[in-house]
Amino acid sequence: MIVRAFRRTAVPVALALLGGLAACNAKSTAAEGPGKVAVAIEPPTATVPAGGATRFAAVVTGAAVTGVTWSVVEVGGGTVDAGGHYTAPAVAGTYHVEAQSVADPTQLATAAVTVQAPAPPPPVVVAVAPASAAVDACQSATFTATVTGSSDTAVTWSVQEGAAGGSVTTGGVYTAPQAAGTYHLVATSAAAPASTASVAVTVTERVLAVAVSPPTVTISASGTAQFTASVTTTCGTVTALKTVAVPN
Questions:
Q1: Mean pLDDT of 79-84
Q2: Fewest CB atoms within 10 A around its CB: which of 31, 44, 52, 100?
């Protein structure tokens, strides 16, 4: 009788214990629930030149769906496409790229982007060689111009004193005037007309030869004789006639 009572009592107790364990397991699972969704952006910060571009990547944990929606927080702060490719605006500043979880829209991450102003272009500089020159009147000299700071290296040549100071070709060949003096040849950048360079040119009148014809003459009293004088300079030859009268 004792054995039978024990057997009858043991079965309900075992069932009760099993039911209790199942309830505990159910409560534990319910308490743990699914993992919390988290979003991270790589890199978390970036520096981009104005108008430049960079790429961000979003990492989503705690959800089977790992997609995100990209956006830029500030209006006019640039654009970002569905792949995280960010294009900076033309205006420098600090902007923020945001990645929002598709699985849990309440979860998002933000990356700060520093957009730097573009570097100013290099100044356009013109140089003329040689830096100075001496030219005989009516003679020529060739000058060259070098332009830096621009892909357009063309120049416009001119003489500061105008036609009185000589003339210059588009290739930098300068022809001096007849009058001696100091004149200035100017090269002006075609890309940046405010950028110029000038060179001083000293022009000298040079006499190459003087001749009188005839070299000798015999004149009687009260007679006359005519002479021709020729002066040759770098500008050419000038001839003058002179009549000489012999007094009684």
A1: 97
A2: 31
